[in-house]
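Problem 3 from the worked examples.
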Amino acid sequence: MTRPAFRRAAPRSPRAPLPTIIRAASAAWLAAGALVALAGISFIVSARTQHRDGAALTGLGLVVLAVSAVIAFYALRLRTGKRSGRETLTTVGMIVGIPLLFRGPALVAVGALLLMCVLLLWLPQSNRFFQERDPKARRRFFRRR
């Protein structure tokens, strides 16, 4: 007696390749996340070596490392076309990037990079990509009966 052959699941329909702008935005956000993580590590190291405001710098370093983890997580979600990734990264980029523009020459570069990453997420090519992958539901305020 022969066993029935196991049925394989149908392969997923192949999706169109990622647009160049989304690959660039994802890579830029991952680079920005690494740069923010490096800043967090430098805060912790300087807190250990300078014995001045050690607890405050260590706490700031941990917060910055948490922000870099959020950036990395949502940068990876960009590639799946989730609108929440774009919205969260835009919020983080604006909240962190704008104040960094006024904090000295080294942090101006980080702030400018974050704001440039935000800009990549809202270009017309990006808007089309997110509209195709994760369309926004339209709400009607006045429903007809």
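Problem 4, a separate protein:
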Amino acid sequence: MLAGAAVLAATGTTAGCSGDGGGDGDSDPARSERLRRRAADESRLLLGRYDATTAAHPGLATTLDPLRAEVARHVAALARGLPADARAASPATGADGPGDRADAAPPPPKQQRGGQPVPADPAKAVAELAAAEKHTADAHTTALATAPGEFAGLLASVAAAGAAHVYLLGATA
């Protein structure tokens, strides 16, 4: 049931994540780039947390993979339009195959932001992942106040998806 809800959430909440990164209408492109970079970095850290949690608890992969895939799409959408060096491209492969991936460079397995280990208890690990999702969604929501045009819409969509992930992860824990 949870996997079905995750797929439903993924298809419903990423529809707004296809912005091309252009046309934000901001008169300060450098400011827009900084906002976009910060948002992509926040989501990239979250993606690393998913990877670390799955590495520490492979039995959770079936449950976490749909949410992780959606976070990877968020990273790519948020990084779209940034210079190539800012997208942190990786040769890693994913559902879309090899190539230029903005969701690269997760922390080492079994590590989270700040070097804190993933809890040995799977339920606690999922609870910490839910807290990381909430932190990321809150950061995207806060960034809305200064985000220009279309990028604000993208941030709102990604923040809403993060809130749905928090709910789904809470049902798992």
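Solution to problem 4. The first helix runs from residue 2 to 13. The chain has a mean pLDDT of 77.
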